[in-house]
# Entry
Amino acid sequence: MMAFELLSKRLGDVFKRLRGKGKLSESDVQDALRQLRIVLLEADVNYKIVKDFLERVKDRAVGAEVLESLTPGLTVTKIVREELIKVLGEAQKPLQFNANDVTVFMLVGLQGSGKTTTAAKLARLLKKRGKNPLLVACDVYRPAAVEQLKAMGAKCEVDVYCGDQGLTPEEIALSAVRHAVSKAMDVVILDTAGRLHVDEEMMEEAARIKALTKPTEVLLVADAMTGQEAVNVASSFDSKVGITGVILTKMDSDARGGAALSMAAATGKPIKFVGMGEKVEALEPFYPDRMASRILGMGDALTFIEKAEAAFGKNEAIELERKMARQQFTLEDFLEQMKGIKKMGPLNEVLSMIPGFNKLPASVRGQIDESELKRVEAIILSMTREERANPSIINASRRRRIAAGSGTSIQDVNRLLKQFEQARAMIKQVYSKGKLTKLLS
# Structure
């Protein structure tokens, strides 16, 4: 299950009906808004946020901008995307750093939200950006919490500060900041203790740590899959401790999307990062405009390019995007980029960033997974260069030869060719006739 898969599919069905009409009446728009309301509420989006969102969409969608448009379905989609961006927080909000002293980031949240793992992911990300971070184990209650942070720190090649035995979390945090100053480290990340539910003891301890260390950011780590409950937790922490932003974890498994769509609007605090998997590199800055595009099935070309640049190098990534835009992406290109694509993350998540991927049949998308990569590579390596560049020439006899050469079946070869042609046709449809430009402008 990919991030927002159910929400994206349901919204896609609503817009598909709209795009099937040459002209829209006010009644058509009202019916679409009713469907949108059902979809968003079923996604566990806060009721008030749904109400305000649909009112803004309605104000724009029943005007001349839509009703007199030559492409009313696309225009409604564009309006919904723009209003979704507002709900998600308008623009990306980067971390704030202390220019004259050590920067302290304090992570708070309930037990099980992924706080310790997120602390290590954040440290790794900052280290890649040229910072010298220190992880601090302030959770002295949960069994093995300190050992878990040590293990994660070692994996990320980041120092972990534990403090002397018997110290309170407040004393450990303050001592860690002094240690960082003495070692010329510029960022301290405090992994504080959580509880199974919101309680006064946890809040009071967090407030004391905050008062002593004066963090630049207090970041709530919340499990996106808990939906509306994550929003309630954020509101509690904000009122009792004061948070500056949110990191949503397990976003790759959140098919509904209620927490992401409610968090910023309900709390007034920006989502700064999202966790997109268990690996230490699976932490991404949160961009409202990109997320809105992904929710609406438009893909996320910018994040795709950034991940490709990290995996392949900038020049290769630019060439890959150029070939997609020109509808020239071949099986040869796919073979050349195979190893790089593996580095970009879970394959379905990566492919979901390509505009139109979510519109492929579920049976096709479900077959494109990590276990298929070796088989796919073997099949493509058994083709001639001419066949990789122009799969349309692969007739029955060529398919038998390719299957025999790759140790697979003719059905496997047929399935790969069908998947590739469907994906390429969808890319062509999205990039042609300026559709992508219209939607994103």
Remarks:
- The mean pLDDT is 82.
- The CA atoms of residues 134 and 158 lie 7 Å apart.
